[in-house]
Design brief:
Number of helices of chain A: 2
Shape of chain A: elongated
Strand content of chain B: under 5%
Oligomer: heterohexamer
Order of helices and strands of chain B: HHHHEEHHHHHHHHHHH
Strand content of chain A: 35-45%
Bound molecules: adenosine-5'-diphosphate
Largest sheet of chain A: 4 strands, antiparallel
Order of helices and strands of chain A: EHEEEEHEE
Number of strands of chain A: 7
Number of helices of chain B: 15
Structural class of chain A: alpha+beta
Largest sheet of chain B: 2 strands, antiparallel
Strand order of the largest sheet of chain B: 1-2
Distance between the termini of chain B: 68 Å
Number of strands of chain B: 2
Structural class of chain B: mainly alpha
């Protein structure tokens, strides 16, 4: 079976739709998304409640997880970088993993066919 | 003798279905009477009902409207929406006691404002009274409070179209100007003795006075049209309509709708100014028109091939409440049921077809529901008022003539509100920039304008 | 003279603790009087209080009950729960003005319904009045509205057992039939002059009239029993009881409970039909019975080795409110405290032991709290009413006799409600299929039936 | 003749602005009258308004305060906060009818309590009445309920400083003792005839009576100071102030603030005990003082270089409501506006500067807002009452003298509340341990103390 | 130390309990669960708010993360596939990763012992 | 490019701040955090609603995801273990993965430079 890569990308929430379209563009059938809090160089807004000041560096981000065929992994990373890029701090990261196996629960298909 | 004449005239006004008290007039009357007899004392029952009604309207604003509107926004703008509503209401109350009350209900003045004789509530004491539509009176302070809440909620309603992008400071400036040049004059025209539409015979015709029991024209058409104009000047929200902007909590919207319904009885039954049979009529109409409208919106959704929705139900309720407002004491229960149903169906198309078609961003449909619903109600009142439709009218005025008057009132309100809103909005733009930065709009006005999050 | 006789008789009825107005009777009386003297005019204070009470009951439905019930459901069914409650209430209001009022409180009729003479509110005007328990009157429109809200909330209460799986359309059909064959007749039997239980002497005995000040039997036993029967016919929710179904927001449930308490005073103190000392008694009882019941539920949890819970507190409050409803004006404060405590403890076992034991799925415990609590209250009222227990009774009726009457009333209500509910439910099943598909139940009724999500 | 003397004296008391009814006195009067004439009958309008006011105050507690406070806590303590508030309120109601009412408003007694003659409401019937400030009366049961809600909300307010760490059982013990040794005596001193501060001439001076229209001293200073003392004894929340503890739902806090505002009119306008012009004055003041305070807090935030916040707006509203409470019927509208603004600014610094500086953990700022705001209001009332500031005073009492009295009342309240709270808190500590375990505090009191989660 | 596999499975929310039991069955001591939104072939319900129609393809899913000994990895995948399978589109995926190390914070144990 | 490790740690929520500081201490620039539910040896509190008893073993946990240079991976694991350790059951786990590539969206930098 052809091997598969697993890509985790952390992006700015409002970029999600764009990224999804971009991925569809490079033929990615599906993905899994979750809301996360991100901590990094980007500084958050300060909140004040009755004088108690919280300048959290934890910012709302969206985490995308997508498994893709080796063949298109590079393209996918490319596509995400381009669409999620605003040029300002906090755009996020893309991490790529090697996947041992991928399985589609419904059919039991594995590898690329599972995606 | 004087007393009798006064009462007689008041009855007449009442029959004309005139919306609200004729304070200046009665105040004048007091002067005359002073010599002859002691000032009348309010019946505690009427005072009690009017105080209760006043609080019901306050509840409509905060928490009612704040929840109804807030639930429809995205969570990042929840506090901004609630705070803008609360703050303009507070501002309106302060302005009301300074120069609002006197402009709308002071003594003297002309067909458009009633002067500044009662600026800063000059001369009002706990003993002062305001006349009702019979020979009864209520405490003037109570009447002032009751009317105060009307001004407060009307300006808050306007915000429905501009939330999620208008600056807080801009809202405050806008409200100050708008109340002064739009709300107070229109309230005077429609509700105060000497008012242009209150007296009838507009433009030298011998048309009857306009029927607006509790504010279909003054409050809803006025707010709705102003909302539309303000939204057009302000522009669309970033991402509208391509990006999905689902309501962040329809639960809260439903709660708000419920509180609005409950509070609306202060609006409608309270506008009788007494706890009498006329208030009872206004009350039953406010029940059945709303019930009918809520169900008819869902029905319309079904007919249009969709599922009947919770938001549809809530929207229908509001549409019905808006439409029955001018008709509350001017219709029979079954006239009210029809009126509610019609308003509901028409508003459905206004918000779900007309708005997308024209493409303006009336964020929470202040125009689609209050503006359109108000027009249906104002004109419809001219019809359901007639005895043949079970209305309380005595038939002395032809339906045609009454409808003509209603249309004139609607047109006057539309024009006045539109012009005034353009002025108020541009002044706000001049002083504050009107709209938040794209970053703030992106991040949400809660954090951007208030430095808080609604939910942690 | 006639007036005197009427008043005297009314006093008598009042002393009998009869739940509510004897409209038809007084209406009849008016006829006679017409010749002799002018129709009586409502005291604005009483009208004001009754309008306030009416709105309090409306607030119990939306947002009160919608939040109390909605918070207990899973978030995927929140809007469905709120909308079903709101929509049946609206439907009930429309039906009420069409054929409900006349069936329950119209003129003429027999022991079970009072005819159709007032269908579509025939003959009612702002000047029409309804008699109270003294020689006072209130505006008939106000009385109609007040009673309208009772019908509306009762049918909404029934839904507590069937939410999360019953179709919206089925709910609407059920409500229409159920109100017509169950609610209107029972309301007439218990509250209207000529009513089977209102007149006493049931089955040729010379038992006294049933005591039901504000609807323990008509509203709560009736709704509770109907809820149980409907739930049995409908069947359990998918996954019940194996799968955990924790309330999605006890915060909202607590808010709902608070609003129910506040609103309930409209129910109880409003049922005095006047702002008099009897209303004051009903008010204080509605305070202390609820306070006692809320705390006793938590206490019972402790005694049973659990932690005192927020939901327990809220449940206890409702149980106490239910139990004090028939006793509101028929008990002293300390009788009410006892009654609340007893109802709370018994209801605790009903919902946390009896229900699991029998295994039926009364989703939100409409039967466990309203049905059981209502029975405790109805029968207990026969006891606390006695002067030796500090009740307002004059001792002319023995406790035994009164309790016997109460039991008869309970049994009649149970049987009538059960039979009527079976009919109504099967008609709904016939026309709509009654229950949503497993997929919809899985996904949630909000998205499946209404095409929306409560939270985004 | 007797009647005349009574009325005259009552008027006098009223003019002195004395906070509340002189029940015991009038009760005494009845005795005399009994012989000469029939007991007076309440005007339904006044009864209606007082019942409405009573419910408004109940709504302030649940859901009002429960939401306002609950929204400010962390979600893991939401139910604990709401339940503690609800449960102490219920407990207070039961205690009130047992020994509270008689201690505060019974007949006889001395300057500090009025004896136990009315323990368990001995002798009260639906026909009993309580005198107002004029020759009118209201049903005694209604007066009892009205005052009952004051006791209930005051003890609930105290909890604002100790939530998120105090045991439920400790709260219950504390409340029992605190009401008995702190609230009832202070209420008697300030509001009941014979009360130490109600009669004036404290410490052999000939100072006037204290002005406390609706409870600035009895409710707010009392609750605020007690909250501070209790918080100091209890200690800080784990992690305070290092760990961020943002409000879990400012949406709910805003809703609570709105309901508190609406309900507060029961407090303030209700304290007129009649639906008269004085109630009207109290009403308008409660509108404008609050409006002004809400906006001024936001303004202060701006001036201090921050963003105007939603929580600031809500906090300002409450500060204004607190400050106008003693002044409600004792000020003109513009005096009230000033008072609200001043209280708002001072409270801003109290909560955002003073508290961090001193480092105590008044979790929800019960002291910072109610304590400080109450003091501003109490002393300020001595000023705005004067006719030269547009107040209703007749100028017979010098501002200096009145302010002196107000300060004495404040000091007495502070000392009494502090001492009583120390006693009550240590008794609670002795019996329950006072504070939850660190694990429970970590996990949250909802799961740890009540075995539930607010949101699932 | 014996090596460990890390398994990420995306399933339909209502299947969670069943899957958990199945895993317990094959001796899996623990797992970590999160709510995610899934995008794929399965189409979501359309939502309409005042005429604004959103047919989101983002569906609520549950993500299970479980680290298991190599030895039973296959069984675990098997167990999940079987119990999470409804045969209808949207049943989800299973992804298997090689793990460099696993550590139990409380004890510092690593590898299989950490699980 | 120097290779990178990806670390997933599941810890008790109230330990988050401490852990974050500890990581900052060993020079970790950023991280991604999400709220999860954990299932394991630790038993949850029982909840009762009107007699219906739920003793969920699903406990609220926090999941930290952090990519770090191979060089400091061990230190990072160390730091987390120490700070997140309370000695009581439920402290959580740390999982370490090899990363194929890491990319910073804003700049396109890869490997260590992306972090
Ligand atoms: N070392 C890391 N491991 C995992 N996630 C990280 C790491 N560094 C940053 N992130 C994620 O990327 C987001 C953006 O990183 P940040 O340093 O703020 O800006 P930039 O991506 O432009 O460098 C952070 O909010 C966080 O969610
Ligand atoms: N390429 C992918 N990478 C990561 N997750 C995916 C991917 N494709 C699908 N998923 C997840 O699996 C879920 C089900 O996939 P879907 O295509 O809808 O049905 P099926 O699993 O039957 O093929 C999706 O909702 C998504 O959460
Ligand atoms: N095999 C596993 N795979 C993934 N996560 C796990 C696994 N076992 C436990 N966890 C996570 O670690 C948390 C703590 O585990 P637990 O067994 O309760 O205590 P301890 O970490 O002390 O052994 C669990 O709540 C869960 O989130």
């Amino acid at each position: 079976m052809a091997s598969v890569k697993y890509i985790i990308a952390v992006i700015k929430p409002f970029k999600l739709d764009e990224v999804r379209e971009a991925l569809a563009g490079v033929g990615v059938a599906g993905m899994t998304v979750s809301e996360v809090k991100g901590f990094g160089r980007q500084k958050g807004q300060t909140e004040i409640y009755r004088g108690a000041e919280y300048s959290t560096n934890m910012l709302p981000k969206v985490k995308i997880e997508v498994a893709v065929a080796d063949a298109i992994a590079a393209q996918v990373v490319e596509a995400i970088s381009e669409t999620a890029n605003t040029g300002s701090i906090g755009d996020g990261k893309i991490f790529v993993f090697d996947l041992a196996t991928a399985t589609r629960i419904r059919t039991g298909e594995t590898g690329e066919d599972a995606l | 003798m004087i007393q009798m004449r006064e009462t007689a005239m008041l009855r007449l006004l009442a029959r004309l279905g005139a919306g609200l008290s004729v304070l200046s007039f009665s105040a004048a009357a007091f002067a005359q009477e002073a010599a002859t007899k002691a000032a009348p004392v309010p019946n505690p029952g009427n005072n009690a009902w009017m105080m209760t009604s006043t609080l019901l309207v306050l509840m409509m604003i905060l928490p009612g409207l704040a929840l109804f509107y807030g639930g429809l926004t995205r969570s990042k703008n929840m506090l901004s929406t609630m705070t803008q509503i609360g703050a303009v209401a507070c501002l309106a109350m302060l302005i009301w006691v300074m120069w609002g009350y006197t402009m709308a209900f002071g003594d003297g003045g002309n067909g458009f404002i009633s002067g500044f004789g009662k600026a800063f509530l000059h001369g009002v004491t706990p003993a002062s009274t305001a006349a009702t539509f019979t020979s009864e009176v209520i405490s003037e302070y109570v009447f002032i409070c009751f009317q105060m809440t009307f001004a407060a909620i009307t300006v808050a309603l306007v915000l429905g179209s501009v939330v999620e992008r208008m600056k807080f400071s801009a809202v405050m400036v806008f409200a100050t100007v708008w109340l002064t040049i739009v709300y107070f004059p229109i309230a005077h025209m429609v509700w105060a003795s000497g008012g242009f539409l209150f007296e009838g015979k507009m433009f030298g015709t011998d048309l009857p006075a306009a029927l607006d029991f509790a504010g279909g024209t003054v409050v809803h058409i006025n707010a709705g049209v102003s909302a539309l104009v303000a939204a057009l000047i302000l522009g669309k929200r970033k991402g509208y309509p391509s990006e999905p902007m689902p309501p962040h909590s329809l639960t809260l919207t439903m709660v708000g709708a419920g509180l609005l319904w409950v509070g609306w009885f202060g609006f409608n039954a309270g506008s009788a100014l007494e706890a009498d049979g006329s208030a009872g009529l206004a009350m039953i109409n406010t029940f059945v028109a709303t019930a009918s409208a809520g169900l008819f919106w869902m029905l319309t959704e079904r007919v249009m091939g969709h599922k009947g929705s919770a938001l549809g139900f809530a929207s229908g309720m509001i549409a019905g409440l808006v439409a029955v407002t001018p008709a509350a004491g001017n219709s029979g229960p079954f006239g009210a049921i029809i009126l509610g149903a019609v308003a509901s169906v028409v508003c459905y198309f206004a918000v779900s077809k007309l708005k997308p078609a024209l493409g303006y961003d009336d964020a929470l449909d202040a125009f689609g529901v209050h503006g359109i619903g108000g027009m249906i109600g104002a004109i419809g009142t001219g019809i359901v008022y007639a005895p043949i439709f079970g209305g309380p009218g005595d038939g002395s005025v032809g339906i045609g003539a009454q409808v003509a008057t209603q249309i004139i009132a609607v047109v006057v309100a539309i024009v006045w509100a539109a012009v005034g809103t353009i002025i108020a909005t541009y002044i706000a733009k001049l002083l504050t920039g009107l709209r938040v930065s794209p970053e703030v709009e992106q991040e949400g006005l809660d954090i951007g304008e208030h430095g808080e999050r609604a939910y942690n």
